[in-house]
C-alpha cells in the first residue's frame, strides 16, 4: 500500500512529521507513539492495515523529524497539538491511539475535545505516572543528567527494557536512530512532566468507546492498572495478548491491526 510522508504546520513555528495511508474517505485512526518514539515505530504494523482504513502515525513535537522547540513538553503541551494537527491534515473526527505514556495525551484530548474523538485505543496504558516511584527515580538518576548529543549507549539500554525478544536487528537499529534525534531537553521535559501529571479526574469524562490492548508479559504496566482503567472509564473494553510484552503492535502486529481495524470500522457504521 502506498504510504505518504509529510510535515504539516500545526501552529506558527511548529511542524509535525507524519505518515499516512489508506482511503482518505474511510474511517480514520491516528497513532501517537510513546515518549521518545517517532511515527516510524508504527512502520511495520501499518503494513497489516487494510486500504479501507485511513491510518496516520505522527511524530510529536521534539520527536523524529518534527520541530523541536526549546520548551513545551508536558502532557498538556502534547495534547494541545492534537486537534490543530487533525485540522491541518483535514480530519474532523477520528479514533486516537496512544502507546504507553502517550495514552495520557490521547485520554486528555478525548476528555476535552469529545467532538473530535470517535474512540480511543490505549496500547499498554499506565493508570497514572503521577509521583510514580520508578519513574521519579529514572528522571532523577538518568534523565536529569542527559546532555546533547544523547549517548547511543543510553538509548540502547532504554530500548532494551521494552524491545520484543525476537525483534529484527535492522528494526532495532532504526528505533535507536530515531531516538537519537530526540534532544536531552525533550527527554527531560517529557519524563519530568509525566511524574507531575495526574488525570484521575478526567477519566470519568471520557464518553467515547475505549479499547485497551495489553500484553500479559508487560513488565512496565500491569493487569491491575488495566482493570482500574476499565472501571474508571465508562465505555472501556480490555483485550489481553498472551505471551506479549509492552509493545503489542510489534510483537503481534497482525492481531493488533485486526483488533484496531475492527474497532475503528465498528465506530464508523
Give a quick set of tags describing it.
AB_hydrolase_1, alpha/beta, Alpha/beta hydrolase, 8-stranded mixed beta sheet, AB_hydrolase_fold, hydrolase activity, Rossmann fold, 8 strands, 269 residues
**Strands side by side in the biggest sheet:** 1-2-4-3-5-6-7-8
- Provide the gyration radius in Å: 17 Å
- CATH architecture field: 3-Layer(aba) Sandwich
CATH class: Alpha Beta
Task: Tell the overall outline.
Answer: globular
The unreliable regions are: none
What count of domains describes the coordinates?
A: 1
* CATH level-4 homologous superfamily: Alpha/Beta hydrolase fold, catalytic domain
Structural class: alpha/beta
Briefly say what this structure is:
Residues 27-253 form the AB hydrolase-1 domain. The protein has 269 residues and is α/β, with parallel strands linked by helices. 37% of the residues lie in helices and 19% in strands.
Topology:
Layout: E1 3-11, E2 14-21, E3 28-32, H1 43-46, E4 54-58, H2 75-88, E5 94-99, H3 102-112, E6 117-123, H4 133-141, H5 152-160, H6 169-179, H7 184-194, E7 210-215, H8 223-232, E8 236-241, H9 248-251, H10 253-268
Parallel strand pairs: 3-4, 3-5, 5-6, 6-7, 7-8
Antiparallel strand pairs: 1-2, 2-4
GO molecular function, one term: hydrolase activity
InterPro entries: AB_hydrolase_1, AB_hydrolase_fold, AB_hydrolase_sf
Keywords: Hydrolase
Amino acid at each position: 500500500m502506498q504510504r505518504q510522508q509529510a510535515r504539516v504546520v500545526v501552529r506558527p513555528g511548529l511542524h509535525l512529521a507524519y505518515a499516512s495511508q489508506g482511503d482518505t474517505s474511510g474511517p480514520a485512526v491516528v497513532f501517537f507513539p510513546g515518549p521518545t518514539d517517532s511515527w516510524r515505530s508504527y512502520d511495520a504494523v501499518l503494513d497489516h492495515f487494510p486500504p479501507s482504513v485511513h491510518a496516520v502515525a505522527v511524530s510529536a513535537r521534539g520527536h523524529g523529524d518534527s520541530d523541536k522547540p526549546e520548551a513545551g513538553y508536558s502532557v498538556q503541551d502534547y495534547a494541545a497539538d492534537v486537534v490543530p494537527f487533525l485540522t491541518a491534515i483535514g480530519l474532523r473526527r477520528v479514533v486516537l491511539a496512544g502507546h504507553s505514556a502517550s495514552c495520557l495525551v490521547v485520554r486528555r484530548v478525548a476528555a476535552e475535545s469529545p467532538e473530535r474523538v470517535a474512540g480511543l485505543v490505549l496500547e499498554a496504558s499506565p493508570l497514572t505516572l503521577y509521583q510514580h516511584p520508578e519513574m521519579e527515580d529514572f528522571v532523577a538518576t538518568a534523565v536529569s543528567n542527559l546532555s546533547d548529543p544523547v549517548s547511543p549507549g543510553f538509548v540502547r539500554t532504554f530500548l532494551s527494557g521494552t524491545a520484543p525478544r525476537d525483534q529484527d536487528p535492522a528494526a532495532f537499529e532504526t528505533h535507536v536512530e530515531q531516538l537519537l534525534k530526540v534532544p536531552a531537553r525533550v527527554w527531560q521535559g517529557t519524563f519530568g512532566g509525566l511524574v507531575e501529571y495526574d488525570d484521575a479526574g478526567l477519566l470519568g469524562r471520557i464518553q467515547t468507546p475505549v479499547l485497551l490492548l495489553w500484553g500479559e508479559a508487560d513488565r512496565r504496566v500491569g493487569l491491575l492498572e488495566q482493570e482500574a482503567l476499565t472501571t474508571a472509564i465508562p465505555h472501556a473494553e480490555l483485550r489481553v495478548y498472551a505471551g506479549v510484552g509492552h509493545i503489542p503492535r510489534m510483537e503481534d502486529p497482525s492481531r493488533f491491526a485486526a483488533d484496531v481495524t475492527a474497532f475503528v470500522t465498528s465506530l464508523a457504521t
